[in-house]
Amino acid sequence: MPQLSPRVTDMNDQGSDGWEVFARARAMVEQGIPVTELTIGEHDIRTAPAILDAMHAAAHAGHTGYATVPGITPLRQAIATRVTQRTGVPTKVENVLVTPGGQAALFAAHLTTLQPGDAALYVDPYYVTYPGTLRACSARPVAIPTTAENSFFPTKGALDTAAQTPGAKTLLINTPNNPTGTIYPRAVLENIAQTCRDHDLWLISDEVYDTQTWEGDHLSPRALPGMAERTIVIGSMSKSHAMTGSRIGWIFAPPHVIEALSDLAVSTTYGVPGYIQDAALYALTQGPDLEQEIAEPFRRRRALALDVLARQGTVGVIPSQGAMYLMLDIRKTGLSGQDFANRLLDSHHIAVMPGESFGISAAGHLRIALTVNDDRLLVALETLCTFAQSLTRA
Questions:
Q1: HEC profile for 199-216?
Q2: What does pTM read for this prediction?
Q3: Are 250 and 276 in contact (CB under 8 A)?
Q4: pLDDT tens string 97-117
Q5: I want to staple 122 with a disulfide (CB 3.0 to 4.6 A). Which of 1, 83, 172, 324 is the partner?
């Protein structure tokens, strides 16, 4: 019997993909059981009608055939202009490749920079798909541990230790961060940049939450000295423009990297549908006002959630400066994040993501997505805190 490739069958180490609680919650919903889902980063307010109108008009105008693989030039130019304005790093059309979403961009970036057996570094906690993406590229995932007490920021020592792994070629970071909501300060990014320069690593920077900054500023590491030539940045319309289902993102990188990625796209995705690119172009032309409008509910809900959490003493919260999530510390209950999440779902029909879904460093934590209306979020958080308090008294 022919066998499947280990690069796919072994993607999920030890058989878990981290989505078990989410899958249980969705199964309950399908059975007609009401569940408050605070699991995935899916906007409760959908794509703006004007963007959908632009997509509809482009499709009816005939932009339904093959589109240019690197992306249509007007969209690439709009992305380059946006990047230049937001990061201060001059960016041109030849620095940009349009991709079918940020996840496809992550896979392509690693497949282009890694050889089979190379070590690919990433920071723990991490977005759920990171290790599987690296294994699918036939790389060896190497997690860089962090601690809640240090806001899950990687230390220079941990970075350098990981960089000394034989065959290390890439370092993947994510700021503003999913799942923790932290934003890497300049000092942390300078340590990361120094590690990449010292050990000749590619830096792959996942910046899909760059419009969701609640405190401080987001600094793209590509803007640091000596980093533009070794940094590959992942961007997306999913979070900034509530276009998750449209699957539209981008990579910006040195021109020779974009050329290689374009060759890869010809043999894999063959580009992104033209009418979706037209809709993305329309969305970008609306400027930062639209981005702020889409981000505002999460800013407001974060403040409401922090107020609830401040009124009790059982559930801790990791300082959050960005993204649509909060990372909660439930170690006082004595339960793992996995056990707490399953018991909360069974007893109160509230679904949250266990910290263990995002790595060992997040054990004993939960990630909540601020993706339901304000009233439901407040009720769910108050219930979660009361449930946690009952466990500490048990």
A1: HCCEEEEECCCCCCECCC
A2: 0.96
A3: no
A4: 999 999 999 999 999 999 999
A5: 172
